[in-house]
Amino acid sequence: MSDKQTTRPTRNPANQASSINVGHQLLEYNASKRFLRITLDFMNDISPRIFESLIETLPYYRKRVSSVHIRVIFKSRDKDDLNHTHARREILKNVVDQLNRFNRLEEVRFVLNLDYLILNQIEPASAIYGLNFQSWTFDILTDDVEHVQHDSAIDRLLRAQFERNSLVEELDRRHMGSRGSRPDENV
Q: pLDDT tens digit string along 113-149?
């Protein structure tokens, strides 16, 4: 391939991923280490469009990355608005859905950054339990690092929250499907 072709993002997918990375504030990509850091910044006011573009961008890294670190940052508990819990969970769920399409994953590390552990605040983290890659690790950064052990109280709580959310979504899908397939009563 000529030098001219390798510099045009529309022709070279690897360059396309690099050019996308440069413009996306929630990603850090290291091609030589096949590493991608995804930062879900819920501390600062970020436009929903930024999160949408993150989801649109992730497929470009699908075949380029073997190590992914997901970092979720929350505001301090006295300044955080827990009314955003559902939207935050949906954002992480969409990230997880994209990561489930990555076929070269060897490592996934999930980290929550918060000033104090509040269960209502970390509920969006339950979406990580939808990850197909089974060997992921989970840390919570408060004043010190706490590795979340399998079957610990936090693990059980978030796993149960994930299962509950999945069940509700499945019931909603079935309900919507049955409404659409119901014969018209006026006929």
A: 988 888 888 999 999 999 999 999 999 888 765 778 8
CA distance 116 to 157: 17
Measured CA to CA, the distance from residue 160 to residue 25 in angstroms comes to: 32
Whole-structure pTM value: 0.78
Which long-range contacts (C-beta less than 8 Å, at least 24 apart) are formed by 14-21?
Answer: 14/64, 16/60, 17/60, 17/61, 17/64, 20/57, 20/60
Which spans in 85-152 are helix H?
85-99, 119-122
The Cα 110–Cα 9 span in angstroms is 30
Q: Which residue is listed with tokens 């489930």?
A: 100
Q: Is 92 left (phi over 0), alpha (psi -120 to 50) or beta?
A: alpha
pLDDT digits (tens, 9 = 90+) for 35-54: 999 999 999 988 999 999 99
Residues sharing a CB contact under 8 Å with residue 128, sequence separation 6 or more, in sequence order: 70, 92, 96, 110, 136, 138, 158, 162
3-class secondary structure, 16: helix
Q: Are 160 and 108 in contact (CB under 8 A)?
A: no
Determine the Cα–Cα distance for residues 113 and 70; give it in Å rounded to an integer. 11
Q: Are 97 and 130 in contact (CB under 8 A)?
A: yes
